[in-house]
Amino acid sequence: MINLESNEPDGPIETQWERTRFKNTLVNPANKRKFNVLVVGTGLAGSSAAASLAELGYNVQSFCLQDSPRRAHSIAAQGGINAAKNYANDGDSVYRLFYDTVKGGDYRSRESNVYRLAQVSTNIIDQAAAQGIPFAREYGGTLTTRSFGGAQVSRTFYARGQTGQQLLLGAYSALMRQVHQGNVKLHTRREMMDLVVVDGKARGIVVRNLVTGAYERYWGDAVLLCTGGYGRVFYLSTNAINCNATAAWRAHKKGAAFANPCYTQIHPTCIPQAGEHQSKLTLMSESLRNDGRVWVPQKAGDTRAANDIPESERDYYLERRYPAFGNLVPRDVASRAAKQACDEGKGVNVTGRAVYLDFADAVKRMGRDGVAEKYGNLFDMYERITGDNPYRTPMKIYPASHYTMGGLWVDYNLMTTIPGLFALGEANFSDHGANRLGASALMQGLADGYFVIPYTLGDYLGKHGNDLKSVDVNDAEFGEAEEQVSGRIDKLLSNKGNKSPLDFHRELGNLMYDKCGMARNEKGLKEAIEEIPKIRDEFWKSVSVPGRKDTLNQNLAEANRVADFLELAEMLARDALNREESCGAHLREEYLTEDGEARRRDDEFSYSAAWEWKGEGEAHELHKEPLTFKYVKQTTRSYK
Amino acid sequence: MSSINVKLRVWRQAGPDVAGKLVDYALTTDSHASFLEMLDQLNRELVNKGEDAIEFDSDCREGICGMCGLVINGVAHGPSDTTTCQLHMRSYKEGDTIAIEPWQATAFPVIKDLVVDRSSFDRIQAAGGYVSVGTGSAPDANAIPIGKAVANEAMDYAQCIGCGACVAACPNASASLFVGAKISQLALMPQGQVERKERALGMVEQMDKEGFGPCSNHGECEAVCPKSIPIKVIANMKREWLKASLT
Amino acid sequence: MASLAQALGSTIGRKYVMAITGLIWAGFLVSHLTANLLLLASDDGAAFNTYAYSLMSLGPLLWVAEGFLAATFLIHVYNAVKITMEKRAARTSRYQVTANAGGPSRKTIASMSMIYTGGLLFVFMILHLKGFKFGTEYTTTVDGTEMRDLYRLVVETYQDPIKVGVYLVMMVVLGLHLRHAVWSAFQSLGVSNQKYLALAEKGGYAFALLVALGFFLIPLAIFLGVGQ
After folding, report:
1. pLDDT above 80: residue A598
2. What is the DSSP code (8-state) at residue A464?
3. What is the pLDDT along chain C (228 residues), one digit of tens a residue?
4. pLDDT tens digit string along C50-65?
5. Reported CATH class of domain A266-401
6. Do the beta carbons of residue A264 and residue A401 sit within 8 Å?
7. Does A48 touch chain B (CB under 8 A)?
8. Which of A254, A369, A475, B9 has its CA 20 to 30 A from that of A79?
9. Residue C137 to residue C149: CA distance in whole angstroms
10. Number of C-alpha atoms within 13 angstroms, CB side, residue B202?
């Protein structure tokens, strides 16, 4: 039976974090080096956590599946990072960032966590600047900011269009400093295959060395999962192709509840799929919607080239439906509207799954050079990928899976329902509710790693560290975990089927996009719940994984990940079916207002859904963590 | 959708200590596919025939993570103006022969096929590619003003994605562009001043220890760099190193 | 701080040494060429021989200068060999297909053949010293002073079409070597100011062309009897 005690502090929200830190049990410096901490993943959350904990004196072991910690997918974030610095003097404050984030998340997040996030946001910018990250500056030498979707203040710090890269390289450099000093042992090209639980506490992991195929066992006093989201359950997404949910899923099967899996964010402006071969979708910065106009042909099935369709036969549907925000409506609204247009048969591109983003007016207004100055690199990228010139013909865009707000359930201290197992960054569910605002993912990853876990982990180890049973990698629990893992790998390899893991991943992705994507309904979700187990059975019958297990074998790695996605997908669909309301990124077609907008049902669904694994072949059990809003009033989001 | 036929000559190497060779494959592919998707397709065909897939590294497939990298017809990242993953088959004509090799350098040993071990870059980074500022000890971000031009120039160098194309393309397998970029970035930023000397000496020493070659100023690195980092950073590195060595 | 030996033995240290010794020799070539142009004066070698005589009468000072040049030359050669060994060790498994990346690349036949052009120049220099400095000692008298008639030796040497041919080929080799060497030395020294570096690049190419052409023309002129 799992315990969903959120451990939110009492009292005024403004001082909750301060009081928590004071009440925490401390570990004295000499004792810190007796504790072993395993950090899985080296993105913003993982690198910053590993570095910060090592600085404190803990023995840290860091794991990543790429060849270097610097490859983690945080690196691809473009736009920026939010922080309540109020440098712009435009009325920003910790409270406002907190308020915007709760509202942006459509009132489905925990207030205490979000408030703390807003509080530490300012420290992140200080830390990053001190690392030598070349943030964009004003002529006077101070930091510059820009505004981003869902906010009316300018609080987004950035380093060109590569903010994620620069922040990750900062955290990576801090990590490598600790590696150099011998406080962190780095293990690259290792994939976590299972969590080892001893006496109900997370005490170790089994990883697979992706180069030699060897299973390796590591023990720790605590395990941190910083392994990102599960967006690739949709196959095509803006995630890196090695992003996967295996670590989180295995932890889930060992007892960590998984919360709100149906909250998956679809980013409205991605380059659409060009053909069957496509392996991923590329995101184009949302900033394009500042000057581009979204439209589709008024007539369904219109096959004329974009420039041959006269103005009077175009439907600028965002401007028509949302006159106040126009092309700048939030991500979920823009994505849904694009899908609706395509579902009505007005979609463009060979696939019929794209809408136009037209810069003809912008070019007229600002001139070609003006447009180039603002968006030149994005236009170049678009042309490189599609071969089309967006100065001359409208861009084609389509929404793509981008970020997952759901994840492992964690309490205020970022601890999962397994004591000693913590989840940070996108891997947890904590701060974004049902929808994440732009430039908030970087903020959360670094907040968790730099400024939250050093305190909360210390409290856990301070309270329980000395009572932890001493474990060894030769203990039975480690042996059993490895046996399970190796049995599964052997099964994959010995399976003499005729379809590649990729084929199954695509099949699953198509189904998920169709039935559990931007708009969901009971019928489709029930079909998905019926269909997914069939694909899963088929997978184990006819997947073919050639090659050996004792050398690099990326097909084997992919097969192992797809097997987990095939399980996670079903839980996602069940969660979506259970949530009979529309909120944030989760839209149920049955729950719309009269004019087609999302309709939340706070009376019944103001809770986080935490799903407990009950065993193979058993249905998940739903647990509810009620959400109470003492500070932010639940209202209907309106962007009209 | 238009399909094209290409002849591929792909480097196959079973492991680090065995010899590799180019193996020929014929493939019909979609001209809209990216180069890596073309390889995905070849792999799918190989797997469906029960043959071993060709191992190659890639991750973000949007030109920023630095994981992908192939020498295509003798040029690192091929004709792409950024990374291999941003190259599309429309750059090739019907019947083209495409030779695909891994980064070749002693400091980047081949693991398998087209996958190499670039951990030497991590060790160079660990030898000084940072500002020693512990979490929590940072002053307010606006406490130290930094001119727009300085921040811009530092950003030009900070963009390095660590892909290793500079090493692959260099006739000497030198890592000077990679090391120079990091040294240049932190030498420009006020935050990097305190450890400026130790950084230059430490990173250069580690670079030599890893077995990268000396820089002979061929400038191939700049030509293949996905982020167009100029060889100016190499001159910077040399000056930083000299100053640190002399004082 | 690293020891001097360590610093000079690092890849960057070596390049500093290459650049400095190389530039010293580039400087020597300028003075050598200037002096050799005296060969073209229509005075039966009087000016040239007088210049040579004045140099030789420097005595111990000349030995110091020669010793310095020889030392820098040998250090240049030693480092060149070490660099070549290091770069070969840095890539033991070679590419099957090679190409130039184009664009801002400076990779040329010149840059790729430095060790070979350098080697040829090394051999040439030995022959050159043997043929002239240690060659036949003719004497002549200019303005009452008896001195070595180097002019006659040069003129005699360059009546032989084979010798002229070899010399001319070697000057192309020298030009190639200098084409990469001169600007590259400034880059190796850490000149990162883009304006100066662009100047060094253009200046370096011009220098290579002028020096090689200058040396090229002298034996050609002698052979063809121009100005005699």
Report:
1. yes
2. H
3. 457 888 888 999 999 999 999 999 999 999 999 999 999 988 889 999 999 999 999 999 999 999 999 999 999 999 999 999 999 999 999 999 999 999 999 999 999 999 999 999 999 999 999 999 999 999 999 999 999 999 999 999 999 999 999 999 999 999 999 999 999 999 999 998 888 989 999 999 999 999 999 999 999 999 998 755
4. 999 999 999 999 999 9
5. alpha beta
6. yes
7. yes
8. A369
9. 7
10. 17
What are the per-10-residue average pLDDT scores of chain B (247 residues)? 91 95 97 94 87 94 96 97 94 97 98 98 98 97 96 97 98 98 98 98 97 97 97 97 92
CATH number (domain holding residue B188): 1.10.1060.10
Q: Which chains form contacts with chain C, at 3 or more CB pairs under 8 Å?
A: B
In this structure, are residues B119 and A124 in contact, taking their beta carbons and an 8 Å threshold?
Answer: no
- The beta-carbon neighbor of B64 closest among A75, A131, A555 is A75
Cβ separation B212–C11 shorter than 8 A: yes
Q: Does A145 touch chain B (CB under 8 A)?
A: no
What is the CATH number for B85?
3.10.20.30
Q: Are A193 and A73 in contact (CB under 8 A)?
A: no
Degrees to nearest 5, angle at CA B213 with C202 and C181: 25
Kindly provide the b/e burial profile for residues A177-212, where b requires at least 16 CB atoms within 10 angstroms of the residue's own CB.
Answer: bbbbeebbbbbbbbbbbbbbbbeebbbbbbbbbbbe
Nearest to B53 among A131, A174, A554 (CB): A554
Quick check: A288 pLDDT over 80?
yes
Mean pLDDT of all residues in A405-422? 98
* Residue A255 identity: G
Tokens of B216: 């002979």
Inspect the interface and report whether the beta carbons of B53 and A242 lie closer than 8 Å. Answer: no
DSSP class of residue B190? Answer: G
Whether A340 contacts chain B with CB within 8 A: no
Q: Do A385 and B161 touch (CB under 8 A)?
A: no
Residue A486 binned pLDDT confidence (cut-offs 50, 70, 90): very high
Report the C-alpha gap between C63 and C68 in whole angstroms: 8
N residues, chain C: 228
pLDDT tens, residue by residue, B171-185: 999 999 999 999 999
Contacts of B79 (CB under 8 A, 6+ apart): B72, B87, B91
- Contact of B129 with chain A, judged by CB distance below 8 Å, is answered with yes
User: CA of C8, closest CA in chain B: separation in Å?
Assistant: 10
Q: Which residue has the tokens 């092309």?
A: A327
Q: Which of B93, B111, B129 is the last residue of a domain?
A: B111
**Interchain contact, B22 vs C188, CB within 8 Å:** no
A543: distance to nearest CA of chain B, Å? 10
The sign one gets for the Cα dihedral A108, A112, A115, A121 is negative
Query: Top-level CATH class of C7-83+107-224?
Result: mainly alpha
- Count of structural domains, chain B: 2
Shared-domain flag, residues B8 and B48: yes
Structure tokens, A354: 């794209």
Indicate if B75 and B136 belong to the same structural domain: no
Residue range A160-207, pLDDT digits in tens: 889 999 999 999 999 999 999 999 999 999 999 999 999 999 999 999
Q: Which two tokens stand for residue A60?
A: 């840290």
Smallest CA-to-CA distance from A131 within B191, B222, B78 is with B191
Contact across the interface for A130 and B131, Cβ inside 8 Å: yes
Q: Does A88 touch chain B (CB under 8 A)?
A: no
Give ipTM to 2 decimals: 0.98
Dihedral over Cα of A6, A7, A9, A10: its sign:
positive
- Collect all residues with Cβ–Cβ distance below 8 Å to B191 and sequence separation of at least 6: A129, A130, A131, A132, B131, B133, B144
Class of domain A489-604 as given by CATH? mainly alpha
